[in-house]
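In this supplementary section we document a worked example of the pipeline. Step one takes a protein sequence of length 77 as its only input; no multiple sequence alignment statistics are reported here. Step two produces a three-dimensional model, which step three serialises into structure tokens for compact storage. The input and output of this example are shown verbatim.
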Amino acid sequence: MIRFLIVIILIILALLIFRNSRKNISNDKPDIYKKIILAVIILAIIFFLATSGKFIIPQILKITKIILPFLTKFIGV
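The serialised model returned by step three reads:
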């Protein structure tokens, strides 16, 4: 997973560099690099959750189960 995160960070940095160099050249074209960067980040998060979901999702459910009584106490239900 660490290698995957490093690769994603390098891809995002490369896209940011291309975006900045393109921004300096022309401003009248739509900024497609912004959409590509956002898509890469979202796909990386989805991939990370899909591959390690068996570890993350049960932990989130445990935390929710612990926090729910306190939350209902503060709401006053």
